[in-house]
Amino acid sequence: MRQGDPPPVVCFGEMLLRLSPMPGIPLTRAAALDLAVGGAEANVAIALAGLGQAASMLTVLPHNALGRRALAALREAGVATEHVTHAAGRLGTYYFEPPSGPVGGCVTYDRVGSTFARAKAGDVGFVAALDGAALLHLSGIIPALGPDSAQLASAAIEAARNAGLPICFDGNYRANLWNAWNSDPRAILTELVASATILIGNHRDISLLLGKTFSGDGPDRRREAAEAAFDAFPDLQVIASTARHIESATVHRLAGRVDLRESHWQTEEVRIAPVVDRIGTGDAYAAGVIYRWLHDGSAQDMAKSGLALAAMKHGVIGDSICIGHAELEAFDLGGADVSR
């Protein structure tokens, strides 16, 4: 980082190529695929950069045209890329069949052996990237990729702790990825979350971490889980989550919630119809929470901004959303009239 530059949020994780057929055409009959670039942590970086928050991506990309396409997606959004490294290999890929009518969406992964999944801790410049940063953001997708990637996540956390940085960890539990190798997700994730300042996760994520269930109903259950997590992880300051109710593949209801140690706030549900693209909405919520937290926002501020950004993302095709601060402030959760 150059002297005088604002401190960036550093987002560390794998970038992915997304290929999708048109809605209503299953992958088995597709003749054409739409290309987009994504990845959980990159989606957060792009959303933050759009809002005016300095953001930097830390990842490993392949030395080929698809690696350059991923790099271009970051730069188009204003995300700093000086700490992106390159190596031989391939860009991780996933295929997304969009929801259509009563049929929900479907994801098929093809990321085994990708450049990022094969990377070692020495391949990533954690110390240089985190020098003078505002916060490190990463997710549970990284350790789910395999033992080498689990060590990568631990190295990132250790570097952030050594630099005295706050850490935002998004649980992003992906059972299919964890089940593909001889993993112990509870032990690995518990070690990582123990260093987090902000946890993006709900009562189910906390149940996995603590090995217990929570018997309350709705908001009470979420508060019970949050209090248990605060007791178990002394460094935690914020737990942020969404509550989603699915009426159909294209009609969802969504609420945002933020728990602090002494207080909490949960928004009213908003009805989102039609859902154009659900992928990346959780990352948009995380970005809204991080953005407000960095600006000393209250639990209410964080939940409302996270929900607004997530709701808007449902109407944007692709993995990420990139809007300005003014658009976020002007967005009306209760309506969608034409802006004139």
Automatic annotation (TrEMBL):
Pfam families: PfkB (PF00294). The keyword Transferase applies. Residues 9-321 form the Carbohydrate kinase PfkB domain. It comes from the Bacteria. Keywords: Kinase, Transferase. SUPFAM superfamilies: Ribokinase-like (SSF53613). This is Sugar kinase. It comes from Alteriqipengyuania halimionae. The lineage of its organism: Bacteria, Pseudomonadati, Pseudomonadota, Alphaproteobacteria, Sphingomonadales.
